[in-house]
Amino acid sequence: MYKESFKFIKNKKVLGNVFGFTLIEMMIVISIISIFSSMTVINFRANEKSKELDNQALILLDGIKKTQTSALAGKLIDDELPVAYRIEVAPCLSNCSFDLKIEPLGESLYTLETSELSKSKISIVDENVNDIDKVLNINISPFRGKMSMFFNGAPTNVASIRLEHIDDSSISKLITINAISGRIDISN
C-alpha cells in the first residue's frame, strides 16, 4: 500500500504543471481584466460628466420654478409687491451664472440671487434667431403668473437655453421654455 501511494506522489511530481497555469495564460487573463477595467473607468467618467450637467440643468430649472412660485404667491420683498419677477440668462463660455431679479414699482431692477453654473457653457437659442450674444429675460408677473420672454428686448414666445459641459461639448442639455403655456422641458 505504501509503495502504491509513493508511485502516485511520484507521478504527481512529474506531472505537476498539469494542475497550474502557465505564465502566458496568466498574462492573457491580466491583460483582459485590465482592458475591461479601463473601459469601465472611461464610461464612469463620461457618466459623471453627464450627471454634472444634469445637476446644472436642474439648478436652472429650479431658479425658473422658484421665480414662478414667488410670482404666483405674491411674495413681498421689503413689504412691497414687485411689478415683475425676472430671470436673466446670458450666454457664456465659462464661469456661467444666471440672476433672479425683481422689478419694484418705480425702481430699477434688484438682484435677489445669483446662481452659478460652473460646469457648463450657456448658449441661447430663439425660435427665429440663433445668436450667442443675446440675453434672455424671463418676466413673470405676480398673482396670475403670466410669463413673458424677451430676447435682447424683442418679445418671443419660445426660447431654448443650451447647456454644454465645460470639458466635453458632446454632452449637452436643451431647456425649452414656452411663454404661452408656461411649460419647461429638458431634453438631451
Q: What does the model show?
A:
The chain is of the alpha+beta class and 188 residues long. The chain has one domain (37-187): minor pseudopilin epsh fold, CATH 3.55.40.10. 34% of the residues lie in helices and 32% in strands. It contains 2 helices and 10 strands. The strands form 2 sheets. It has a 6-stranded antiparallel sheet, covered by helices on one side. The longest helix is centred in the first third of the chain and has 51 residues, at 23-73. It is elongated and about 90 Å long. The chain starts with a helix and ends with a strand. The model has no long low-confidence stretch (mean pLDDT 83).
The ordered H/E elements are HHEEEEEEEEEE
Radius of gyration, rounded? 31 Å
Helix proportion: 25-40%
> What is the helix tally?
2
Distance between the termini: 77 Å
What strand order characterises the main sheet?
3-2-1-5-6-7
Classified by CATH, the class is Alpha Beta
Briefly note the CATH topology name.
minor pseudopilin epsh fold
- The domain count comes to 1
| Overall strand count | 10
Largest sheet: 6 strands, antiparallel
What form results from the Cα inertia axes?
Answer: elongated
CATH architecture heading: 3-Layer(bab) Sandwich
Mean pLDDT: 83
CATH evolutionary superfamily: minor pseudopilin epsh domain
The proportion of residues in beta strands is 25-35%
pLDDT < 50 stretches = none
Structural classification: alpha+beta
